[in-house]
Amino acid sequence: MHWALLAAAIALEVFATSMLKLSDGFTKLWPTVAVLAGYACSFYLLSRVLLTMPVGTAYAIWSAAGTVLVVGIGFVAYHERLTALQLVGVVLTITGVVLLNVGGQAHGSPEPAGEPGPTAATAASLEP
């Protein structure tokens, strides 16, 4: 379920970022409303994802996917220039997220949020 929420959070963030260009510096009402609503909903969904996924992993995926998608939208929809060096940056961004995820799986995942381990105070109270 957290993957679906993360995908929705990414889609809303990409939508909001794309609307920034159309808001004309927040001078056009409806694109500005779309930016604010898109970011608010995206951050809400991201906060829900963080209940079950490590923050580093979730944020890396969220930000990198958003960056790559917005670069693509800029190229296709806004006819922005994309150089070979920028393409290398996109590939490195994707590679970095993959390495973060593989590295996290190799070392085990931290305890899920909402299920904290014993603190010093509770551990002391458990001692005989």
TrEMBL record:
Organism: Leucobacter albus
SUPFAM superfamilies associated with the record: Multidrug resistance efflux transporter EmrE
Keyword Transmembrane recorded: yes
Localisation: Cell membrane
Segments traversing the membrane: 26-46, 58-78, 84-102
Name of the protein in its database record: Multidrug efflux SMR transporter
Domain of life from the UniProt record: Bacteria
UniProt region (Disordered), positions on chain: 107-128
UniProt cross-references to InterPro entries, sorted A to Z: EmrE-like (IPR037185), Small_drug/metabolite_transptr (IPR000390), Small_multidrug_res (IPR045324)
Membrane topology: Multi-pass membrane protein
Keyword Membrane tagged: yes
